[in-house]
Amino acid sequence: MKKHLLFVLEPISILFLVFFLLFFSISAQSMIQNQEWLFNHLSKNQNLTKYTYQVVALYPHDSRAFTQGLIFHEGFLYESTGLYGESSLRKIDLRTGKVLLENKIDEIHFAEGLTLFNNLLIQLTWKSHLGFLYEVDTFEYIGSFEFPYEGWGITHDNQNLIISDGSDTLHFLDPKNFLVTKEIQVHLNGLMINQLNELEFINGKIYSNVWHTDLILIINPDDGEVIGWINLTGLEKQSDLSKNVLNGIAFDQTNNHLFITGKNWPHLYEILLIEER
Question: What is the 3-state secondary structure (H, E, C) of 186-222?
Answer without folding.
Answer: CEECCEECCCEEEEEEECCEEEEEECCCCEEEEECCC
